[in-house]
């Protein structure tokens, strides 16, 4: 099997807010935005610079998914960054709360967590 990462899909509770967060705050470029009338749903494809995509969906009345306490399933989404402190400073300009930097005891690399508008845990991981 020859596998490569293609995309991650996120169902958001407030589509305009999440679109702003992932496009304007995190800086992912928009590939395509589609409104699907039969589902009353938007689908936004965003390019990840290192390859792959994030798909944002706006499904009406989607149930909430617990993030805390940590539940089984997808734990978080991590982004590799060249300079973790610079990345944190960029998030601070948008009033995004970021946890204190920690050091991965296995790799010695710095990392931290923050949340998207729906509370999805996101990680910055120093390259």
Automatic annotation (TrEMBL):
<dbReference type="Pfam" id="PF00903">
    <property type="entry name" value="Glyoxalase"/>
</dbReference>
<dbReference type="InterPro" id="IPR029068">
    <property type="entry name" value="Glyas_Bleomycin-R_OHBP_Dase"/>
</dbReference>
<feature type="domain" description="VOC">
    <location>
        <begin position="4"/>
        <end position="127"/>
    </location>
</feature>
<dbReference type="InterPro" id="IPR037478">
    <property type="entry name" value="YwkD-like_dom"/>
</dbReference>
<dbReference type="InterPro" id="IPR004360">
    <property type="entry name" value="Glyas_Fos-R_dOase_dom"/>
</dbReference>
<keyword id="KW-0479">Metal-binding</keyword>
<dbReference type="InterPro" id="IPR037523">
    <property type="entry name" value="VOC_core"/>
</dbReference>
<protein>
    <submittedName>
        <fullName>VOC family protein</fullName>
    </submittedName>
</protein>
<dbReference type="InterPro" id="IPR051332">
    <property type="entry name" value="Fosfomycin_Res_Enzymes"/>
</dbReference>
């Amino acid at each position: 099997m020859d596998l490569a990462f293609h995309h991650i899909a996120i169902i958001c509770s407030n589509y305009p807010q999440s679109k702003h967060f992932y496009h304007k705050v995190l800086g992912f470029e928009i590939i395509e935005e589609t409104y699907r009338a039969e589902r009353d749903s938007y689908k936004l494809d965003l390019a990840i610079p290192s390859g792959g995509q994030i798909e944002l969906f706006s499904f009406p009345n989607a149930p909430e998914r617990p993030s805390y306490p940590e539940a089984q399933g997808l734990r978080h989404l991590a982004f590799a960054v060249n300079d973790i402190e610079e990345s944190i400073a960029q998030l601070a300009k948008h009033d995004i709360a970021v946890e204190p930097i920690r050091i991965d005891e296995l790799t010695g690399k710095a990392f931290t967590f923050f949340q998207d508008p729906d509370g999805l845990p996101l990680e910055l991981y120093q390259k």
